[in-house]
From TrEMBL:
Signal peptide: 1-29
Organism phylogeny: Bacteria, Bacillati, Bacillota, Bacilli, Lactobacillales
Keyword terms, alphabetized: Hydrolase, Metal-binding, Metalloprotease, Protease, Signal, Zinc
Protein name as it appears in the record: Peptidase metallopeptidase domain-containing protein
Start and end residues of each Peptidase metallopeptidase domain: 34-188
Highest taxon above the source species: Bacteria
Length: 188
């Protein structure tokens, strides 16, 4: 049987310093890079709950969920009242790891398996204070939220600035390589 691994792994979405670096310009060789994966849920129907009081951030998370549902590989559905959710979507006034201030952060637990880790829970958080301080638009906040849900779905950081999974991306949305990465782990 598989050993249950309940590691809380931090995925850094974007640090304050990195969040401002992608202001456009040149295309590098990493543009055609594939989005790597680290795991997947047991099923393609994954429940979530939005644990924020702000209607603004509820809207940001709702838009991010819609983006992943449009891809057509997984279906994110709201958890029913009283049901525990697979993914919790939340916000905070501070997110720090190793001294860096982060725009977003995802913790997850999984079963370690030989071929692909099985995700069992995830919490994705947005840093409201940092996103406001650096004047992120609602669309840019949605891109950060989409990035964090990508981690909760089993995607790692991409080397391509065109990918929503690029480590310091607030401008890109889901692209073909992100869809291909989801398909590779969920359509096996």
């Amino acid at each position: 049987m598989f050993a249950k691994v309940m590691k809380q792994i931090a995925i850094v979405a974007a640090s304050c310093a990195l969040a401002l670096t992608n202001l456009g310009g040149t295309v590098n060789a990493a543009e055609n890079a594939k989005t790597p994966t680290w795991g997947a849920w047991k099923t393609t129907t994954i429940t979530y709950k939005t644990d924020v009081s702000s209607n603004y951030y509820k809207g940001v998370w709702k838009n991010a969920v819609k983006s992943w549902n449009k891809v057509g590989v997984v279906e994110l559905v709201p958890a029913k009242s009283g049901q525990s959710a697979d993914i919790t979507l939340t916000s905070s006034n501070s997110l720090k790891t190793k001294g860096d201030d982060l725009a977003g952060y995802t913790n997850y637990s999984y079963y370690q398996k030989k071929d692909n880790n099985q995700i069992v829970s995830a919490t994705s958080t947005l840093n409201k204070k940092l996103l406001t301080k650096y004047n992120y638009t609602k669309k840019q906040r949605t891109n950060v939220a989409t990035h964090e849900i990508g981690h909760a779905l089993g995607l790692s950081h991409s080397k391509s600035e065109a990918s929503v999974m690029f480590a310091s991306e607030r401008y890109a949305s889901i692209d073909q390589q992100d869809k291909a990465a989801l398909e590779s782990v969920y359509n096996n």
